[in-house]
Specification:
Helix 7 runs parallel beside helix 9 and helix 7 runs parallel beside helix 10. By secondary structure, the protein is of the alpha/beta class. It starts with 5 loop residues before the first strand and ends in a 22-residue tail after the last helix.
Length: 294
């Protein structure tokens, strides 16, 4: 696929039609004009035809079922980029590992993009930065150049594990901060949850092979700050509603968008158990609270 064109795969024909006819994603980014070079289709074969770079941006727990149905259409040699932030329930696999398992792609063809990238602000071309991670530094740098714009600055790293875990854990911490807000707690409580949550994330990351420095950067602290402080964050908003007494089912019935942290609470807690990391999860509220300082 030429670098000047992008074909997006979508689930709903009516939304794809709106994107093609009006150049707007009216459901998720109303009022944002999309580039003429972007088109949408519900046909995975059409979306993937001749693609050089395939970007995967669907709810993490739905990745496996989607790849099982259309991985065969991915061109050989295409670079696969994950924007997803989650750990698969049951298998405890990171999204890059699910991609590798179902596509047979080697590590040098799988990349991750993560950072403080709230979609609305990115779409509005507000200044932002992110991290492109791939086991192959050359591939990371190639992708870095492809997505660099005057308003968007990506950095590169080879720490795929750290970027994926940081992106997953920050959603859980964002939920917990939202719960604090919903319960009426102040900044001391929120700051404590954020700081201790980051400490636990880094401990778990080191235990599974991540570089601890990653958690101090854009994929770690940067994404955590954005998620925990912005009203645009789905996970913080979800947590606020939990804190006011609403149930998970009630909140999910009000929105079409997915708060990834809701399911990640369980998968990250289970991932941490074999490592001995002190991460605790409650079926009532997500809790990231360590027993002691590191």
């Amino acid at each position: 696929m030429p670098a000047t064109t992008s074909v997006c795969g979508g689930r709903r024909p009516e939304l794809c039609a709106t994107i093609n006819d009006k150049h707007e994603n009216s459901d998720y980014l109303p009022g944002v004009e999309l580039p003429e070079a972007i088109s949408a289709t519900t046909d995975p074969r059409e979306a993937l035809a001749d693609a050089e770079v395939v970007i995967l941006a669907i709810p993490s727990q739905q990745l496996r079922s989607n790849l099982e149905s259309w991985a065969e259409h991915i061109p050989a040699g295409a670079i696969l980029v994950s924007l997803m932030k989650g750990i698969e329930l049951g298998t405890h696999l990171r999204m890059s590992e699910v991609i590798a398992e179902l596509t047979g792609a080697t590590a040098d063809r799988i990349a991750v993009v993560s950072g403080p990238n709230l979609a609305r602000e990115i779409a509005d071309r507000e200044p932002a930065a992110s991290v492109v991670a791939c086991a192959d530094q050359g591939v990371a740098e190639r992708l870095q150049k492809l997505c660099h714009t005057p308003a968007f600055r990506p950095y590169s790293t080879t720490d795929v594990i750290g970027c994926e875990l940081a992106g997953t854990a920050k959603n859980i911490i964002g939920l917990a901060v939202g719960v604090c807000v919903g319960l009426g707690f102040g900044d001391n409580t929120k700051a404590s949850v954020i700081t201790r949550g980051l400490a636990e994330t880094a401990r778990l990351g080191v235990a599974i092979g991540a570089d601890p420095v990653t958690f101090m950067g854009l994929a770690g602290m940067g994404d955590l700050v954005a998620t925990c402080s912005s009203p645009l964050s789905r996970n913080r908003t979800f947590g606020e509603k939990l804190g006011t007494g609403m149930t998970v089912e009630e909140i999910m019935g009000q929105t079409r968008q997915v708060a990834e942290g809701v399911k990640s609470c369980q998968s990250v807690s289970e991932l941490a158990k074999p490592t001995g990391s002190r991460c605790r999860w409650s079926s009532t509220l997500p809790r990231w609270w360590p027993a002691a300082e590191p």
